[in-house]
Input
Amino acid sequence: MSDDQAMLDALEESIEQQTVVELTDDQGRVVRFRFVAALEHEEKTYVVLADLEPAQDSEDELVLLRVERDDDGEDRYIMLDDEEELQTVFEQYVACSMQEALEGLDDTEFDGEESDCLCEGVCCGGDDCRESKNVLH
Output
């Protein structure tokens, strides 16, 4: 197992036990976040966090941070300055989230309705065919 994978596994295990992450900013203020996800991209580990106490006039925002180990073996959370890196990691997060959401769907249901469709991956043409609802026309 690579060091990055071990860090990712340890981070996810730690976060699963405690979903609130407290980080100290450059001015020494403690900011609380809700852990959303951890992912790996190009052998680097990233975390996706959401502010636990967002401003009332703002939309929910996600924070993407790169996780690096310092010389003492402590995790450091680094803001992403590179727009391309930020965009790439965000797109990977969105793709993973969509995949998890799709995997979580029950094959016997679509839009909350039971379906009698028995086709597996190919549209049978029936009125309640699940597959025909997944095809863009």
